[in-house]
Amino acid sequence: MRWRTILLQDCFLLVTCLLPSLEAVPIDIDKTKVKNAQPVDSAKIEPPDTGLYYDEYLKQVIDVLETDSHFREKLQKADIEEIKSGRLSKELDLVSHHVRTKLDELKRQEVARLRMLIKAKLDSLQDTGIDHHALLKQFDHLNHLNPDKFESTDLDMLIKAATSDLEHYDKTRHEEFKKYEMMKEHERREYLKTLNEEKRKEEESKFEEMKKKHENHPKGSKDQLKEVWEETDGLDPNDFEPKTFFKLHDVNNDGFLDEQELEALFTKELEKVYDPKNEEDDMVEMEEERLRMREHVMNEVDTNKDRLVTLEEFLKATEKKEFLEPDSWETLDQQQFFTEEELKEYENLISLQENELKKKAEELQKQKEELQRQHDQLEAQKLEYHQVVQQMEQKKLQQGIPPPGPDEESKFEPYI
Description:
Helices cover 61% and strands 1% of the residues. With 416 residues, it is mainly alpha-helical.
């Protein structure tokens, strides 16, 4: 279903196949030319985790809504803006009672889960006397004022919250990768400082060779697709045909190339230059490279920005000059993610954090020493007490007085 695809694409890579009731797009390909061609079982394609704290709730609501024929029909005809704006949420009032009952139950389960999270957090803070119901306001993917019923407001809030939360996913991920790269560079430079001049030159030479290795592969161009055509599809690169290529890699036969299907085109190529067995090949960088290539292709090909590539969009892209140029994409090693000023600022931040940790460590050491001193003092007092008791026992024995029983002895035990 297209509405599901659009919604979940906007919710970062939750792309799924069309509903089983829709006809699959026929593929006019001579399968005899394809080596080891296997039919695709679209039912086995599972939507990936969005990373949202309400990911399971989101997917369950969509699955239930798809079971209602009226709602499904309306959403098949919907465009992106209708879905994003929430206008289609009003159609929820027309779904079957059975579907509404299931949605109500899902919402009650989600509210119960959120309340458990709140309670666990408050318990960890030893906070009491707080209105748990009021705290549900912080969750904007459901209507907390009615915790028992799933209404059109809930669907509207769920769509808008998921879209908003994940629109910033790529930006956040790039920022995290930038910090990762700065930390790597910081550690590399610190290591170089420990080497003599000869060893330093060797390390720098090795570093430059590694960068060149990762640069040396087709990048988001016709050459790359032709390699996939030959190595994955088993076809003659001289017979490359964009329309056939599109239909071969539209894995779920829904008439679109989604983000997952696009990333699959880059994976084989990246695996040639990133080997997890090689110490110099950073798998974090490989993942970033794949995601950036996907973003680049989407920006160039997806003209209507619905996070899906149609056959028409794909064919138009293959006619562009950029597609025919082998170096239309810069790899990570060709890009500068941070300036020297940003690196220095980051190193200063690291230094401050290290100083804070050192200060805390010193304070903890002092506390440990103080506790040890108190422990030693208590042990000394206990020893002194036992010595006094022994002396008293010896005197009583000398005087012929029998020693006290266990009950009497305990009366004189100090509270330590």
